Task: inverse folding
C-alpha cells in the first residue's frame, strides 16, 4: 500500500490543497479509503489526521468501508424520481437483501445512490461499474444485475 | 489533418499564427465528403452509442467509403430522448434511435445512394408526420442554439475542430485588440447575468474583482452542477470544453488573474475527461501558459474534482474545497471577489456563463442584447426532463414562455397524460402550475413566481406526480446535503422533512401547513448560505399552488396522484386482465394468484408490499392504484 499511496501523493507534488483529489485517486485504487492510507496521507502531506478524516467523511463520494466488486449507482435525481427511481432502488435492495450504502455478504455488489449522473433524459437510470442502464423498470432489475458476476 | 496526432504542435505566437492555422483547417474541412455526426454524449451512452460508433468505423472501411465519408464523434445533440442520434451533412438529415444493424443500411442507402431511411426519421409527436431535416424538427425549430449549437459541429476532443469553427479568435481579439477595461465594459453592456442560479450581473462581478486590492487573483469555473435533474453544464462541458476555457482565459485577462481552476463534479466522467484533454491541447498550442498569442499575458489552469457534495456548488464552500478543506460555506460579509480562495480576490462563474463570453466578444454586446428580455439577455440552456415527450438539452432565447418550451419544443406530456407542474431551479427552486404556463422565462419572472432560474433544470410533472412527495423529495435531498454548520438549515430542514413524512404517511394534522410556513420563514431569514435560505422554496410553492393536495393528504388521508405508499393500494382491473400471469411471476410476495387462462388474477392485499413490480410489468393497464 505504501508505495501506491506515495505515488498518488507525488502525482500532486504533495500539494495539500489537492487532498480531495488524492483521496479520490486512493479510492479509485482500493474502491474505498483504507485506514492505513489515510494515516499515510496525513503523515506524508503534513495534514493532521483529524483534517483528513474530516474531509474523507464530508464528501459523499468517499467510503471508509471496503466495497464490493461491482458498484451500483441508482440515480435519485429529480428527473429519475418522478419516473419512479425509488421503486427501482427498493427493488434492488430487496433483490440483494441490502440497504442503500450496503455491501452484499459475498462482496459482489455495493449499492449506492447518486443525485444525478447527467443522463436525466433516459431516467430512471442506474450505473454499474461505469455502464449506464436507462429507462429502468422493476422487471429489468434482475436481468441487469445478472450481467455482473 | 489533426493537430492531436502529428507534429502540428507548434505554439501559436501571434494572432496571425492563429488565423493562418484556422484558414488551413477550414480548407482541410471543405471537401465533398459526406459528414456523419454521431452523438457520443453521456445520455446516449445507455443507448449504446459507443457500439454504434464502432460499427460505423468498421462498416465505413468494409463498404470502402473512407474517401467518401468523414465520421465525427460529437458531444450531446440535445434530443436525448431519441438517442443515439446521427446527423448527416449535406442535407441536415436527422436519424434517431439508431441501432447497430441500422448502420450498414445508413451507409449503403443514404451515403452511397442518397436515399432516406424512412424508419429512422423523427416523427412529430403531435401530428405523427415524418421529418427528414433536423432544422425542421419542432424540437430544434423554436430553440436558439447559440452556445449548444456548436456541439454538433465539433469533436470535443479535437482542438482543430474548435479552431476551424472560429475558436480562440475571440481570445486573440480580447488579448491583442482590447484593454481589460474594454472587455469588462463590453460584458457589462451585453447584460450577461450569471447562469449558475441567482443571475448576478457578470460584468459588475468582474469589475469588482479587477478593482479589489491585491496582486494575486483567481478565476474559477463552477462545474459542480449538483442540482438533481440538471445536466446542462455537463452537456456543454463535455460537448464543447474549449468554449468554456476560452471564456475563462478572456475573463482572467480582464480581471487580472494568472491562475484559474475548473471545479468539476466527479459524477461527470465524460466532462472531466474532455475538459482535461482540452486543457492539455490549449497548453500545447500556447493558448495557456506564458505570453499567450504573443501578448504579455500569462495564465494557467488546474482541474479539480468535486467529492459529491451539493453544497460545494456554493461559491465559498467550493473555494474551501479547492483549498483541500471540508466544503463548508461561510457568511459572505466580504464577497469572494474581495476575499475568496486563499483570501485572494476570486471570480467564480458557472460553466455556461463562461461559454457566453467568447460569443459576446466575437459578435459584440449590441448583437447579444438583441436576444432576450429587458432584464435577462441572451439564451439559457435547460435540461428539459421528466414526464415529457422530447427530453433533452434545450437552449432558448430568454423570454419565451413555459408553454412554448413544454409543448412546442418538448412535444407535450408523455403517454397523453395531463400536465401538472414544472419544477425549475433545482432544490432551491419551486413548482409552477398550469396557470403560469404563459410566464415568460427569465431570471426575474421565475423569481417573482416563487421559483428561480437555477442552473437550468426543468422537470415536468404530470397527474401521476404527487406534489407533497416532491416537496418531501427535495427536503430529503437537502437534509442529506446540508453541511450542518448552521442550526436553521441543519435542524429546520430536518423538522420540515419530518412533518412532510407524517403528511405523506397519513399522520398529518391541520396545523402542519401553518407550521411548515413558519419554519420556512425562519430558514429564509437565518440560514448562513443559499442552501438553507432557498430550501423552503419547493415547500412554499407547492403549498401556494397545490394546497388541495396537501389537504387531501391531511384531511382525507388520500394521495390524489397515487404515489404515497401509505395512502394507496393496488388492485386488479378485472375487465382489462387477460390472466396472462406476468404479474404473478413478478410479485416478490406471492400476493397475486393465477386463476386460470382468460380469468383475471386475484391480488391478496394483506400480502402486498406495494412494490409496484406488477404495475410496471403489466402493459395492459390491468393493475390500478387507488
Result:
Amino acid at each position: 500500500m505504501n508505495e501506491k499511496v506515495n505515488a498518488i501523493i507525488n502525482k500532486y507534488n504533495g500539494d495539500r490543497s489537492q487532498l480531495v483529489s488524492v483521496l479520490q485517486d486512493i479510492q479509485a485504487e482500493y474502491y474505498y479509503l483504507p485506514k492505513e492510507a489515510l494515516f499515510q496521507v496525513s503523515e506524508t502531506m503534513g495534514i493532521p489526521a483529524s483534517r483528513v478524516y474530516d474531509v474523507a467523511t464530508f464528501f459523499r463520494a468517499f467510503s471508509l468501508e471496503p466495497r464490493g466488486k461491482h458498484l451500483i449507482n441508482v440515480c435519485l435525481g429529480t428527473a429519475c424520481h418522478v419516473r419512479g427511481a425509488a421503486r427501482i432502488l427498493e427493488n434492488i435492495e430487496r433483490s440483494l437483501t441490502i440497504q442503500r450504502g450496503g455491501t452484499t455478504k459475498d462482496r459482489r455488489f455495493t449499492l449506492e445512490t447518486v443525485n444525478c449522473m447527467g443522463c436525466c433524459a433516459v431516467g430512471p437510470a442506474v450505473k454499474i461499474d461505469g455502464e449506464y442502464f436507462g429507462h429502468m423498470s422493476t422487471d429489468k432489475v434482475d436481468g441487469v444485475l445478472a450481467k455482473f458476476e | 489533418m489533426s493537430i492531436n496526432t502529428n507534429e502540428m504542435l507548434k505554439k501559436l505566437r501571434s494572432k496571425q499564427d492563429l488565423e493562418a492555422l484556422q484558414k488551413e483547417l477550414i480548407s482541410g474541412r471543405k471537401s465533398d465528403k459526406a459528414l456523419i455526426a454521431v452523438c457520443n454524449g453521456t445520455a446516449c451512452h445507455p443507448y449504446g452509442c459507443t457500439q454504434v460508433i464502432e460499427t460505423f468505423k468498421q462498416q465505413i472501411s468494409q463498404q470502402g467509403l473512407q474517401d467518401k465519408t468523414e465520421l465525427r464523434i460529437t458531444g450531446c445533440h440535445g434530443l436525448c430522448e431519441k438517442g443515439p442520434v446521427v446527423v448527416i451533412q449535406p442535407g441536415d438529415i436527422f436519424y434517431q434511435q439508431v441501432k447497430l444493424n441500422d448502420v450498414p443500411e445508413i451507409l449503403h442507402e443514404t451515403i452511397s445512394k442518397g436515399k432516406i431511411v424512412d424508419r429512422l426519421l423523427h416523427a412529430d409527436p403531435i401530428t405523427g408526420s415524418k421529418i427528414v431535416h433536423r432544422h425542421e424538427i419542432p424540437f430544434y425549430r423554436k430553440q436558439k442554439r447559440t452556445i449548444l449549437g456548436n456541439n454538433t459541429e465539433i469533436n470535443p476532443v479535437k482542438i482543430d475542430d474548435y479552431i476551424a469553427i472560429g475558436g480562440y479568435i475571440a481570445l486573440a481579439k480580447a488579448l491583442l485588440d482590447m484593454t481589460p477595461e474594454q472587455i469588462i465594459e463590453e460584458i457589462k453592456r451585453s447584460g450577461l447575468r450569471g447562469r449558475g442560479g441567482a443571475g448576478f450581473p457578470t460584468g459588475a462581478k468582474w469589475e469588482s474583482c479587477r478593482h479589489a486590492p491585491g496582486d494575486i487573483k483567481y478565476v474559477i469555473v463552477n462545474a459542480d452542477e449538483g442540482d438533481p435533474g440538471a445536466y446542462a453544464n455537463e452537456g456543454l462541458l463535455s460537448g464543447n470544453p474549449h468554449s468554456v476555457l476560452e471564456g475563462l482565459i478572456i475573463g482572467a485577462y480582464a480581471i487580472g488573474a494568472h491562475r484559474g481552476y475548473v471545479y468539476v463534479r466527479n459524477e461527470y466522467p465524460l466532462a472531466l475527461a474532455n475538459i482535461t484533454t482540452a486543457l492539455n491541447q490549449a497548453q500545447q498550442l500556447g493558448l495557456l501558459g506564458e505570453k499567450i498569442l504573443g501578448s504579455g499575458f500569462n495564465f494557467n489552469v488546474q482541474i479539480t474534482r468535486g467529492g459529491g457534495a451539493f453544497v460545494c456548488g456554493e461559491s465559498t464552500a467550493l473555494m474551501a474545497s479547492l483549498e483541500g478543506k471540508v466544503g463548508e460555506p461561510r457568511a459572505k460579509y466580504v464577497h469572494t471577489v474581495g476575499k475568496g480562495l486563499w483570501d485572494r480576490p476570486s471570480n467564480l462563474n458557472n460553466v455556461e456563463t463562461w461559454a457566453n463570453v467568447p460569443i459576446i466578444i466575437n459578435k459584440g454586446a449590441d448583437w447579444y442584447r438583441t436576444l432576450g428580455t429587458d432584464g435577462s439577455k441572451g439564451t439559457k440552456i435547460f435540461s428539459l426532463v421528466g414526464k415529457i415527450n422530447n427530453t433533452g438539452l434545450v437552449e432558448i432565447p430568454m423570454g419565451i414562455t413555459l408553454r412554448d418550451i413544454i409543448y412546442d419544443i418538448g412535444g407535450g406530456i408523455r403517454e397523453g397524460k395531463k400536465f401538472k407542474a414544472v419544477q425549475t431551479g433545482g432544490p432551491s427552486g419551486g413548482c409552477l402550475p398550469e396557470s403560469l404556463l404563459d410566464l415568460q422565462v427569465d431570471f426575474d419572472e421565475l423569481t417573482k413566481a416563487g421559483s428561480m432560474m437555477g442552473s437550468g433544470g426543468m422537470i415536468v410533472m404530470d397527474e401521476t406526480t404527487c406534489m407533497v412527495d416532491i416537496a418531501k423529495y427535495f427536503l430529503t435531498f437537502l437534509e442529506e446535503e446540508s453541511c450542518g454548520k448552521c442550526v436553521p438549515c441543519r435542524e429546520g430542514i430536518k423538522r420540515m422533512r419530518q412533518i412532510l413524512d407524517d403528511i405523506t404517511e397519513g399522520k398529518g394534522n391541520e396545523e402542519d401547513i401553518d407550521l411548515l410556513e413558519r419554519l420556512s420563514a425562519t430558514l429564509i431569514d437565518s440560514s448562513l448560505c443559499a442552501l438553507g435560505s432557498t430550501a423552503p422554496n419547493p415547500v412554499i410553492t407547492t403549498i401556494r399552488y397545490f394546497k388541495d393536495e396537501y389537504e387531501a393528504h391531511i384531511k382525507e388521508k388520500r394521495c390524489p396522484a397515487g404515489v404515497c405508499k401509505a395512502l394507496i393500494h393496488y388492485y386488479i382491473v378485472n375487465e382489462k386482465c387477460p390472466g396472462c400471469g406476468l404479474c404473478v411471476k413478478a410479485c416478490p410476495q406471492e400476493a397475486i394468484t393465477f386463476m386460470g387462462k382468460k380469468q383475471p388474477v386475484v391480488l391478496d392485499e394483506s400480502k402486498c408490499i406495494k412494490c409496484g413490480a406488477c404495475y410496471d410489468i403489466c402493459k395492459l393497464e390491468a393493475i390500478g392504484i387507488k
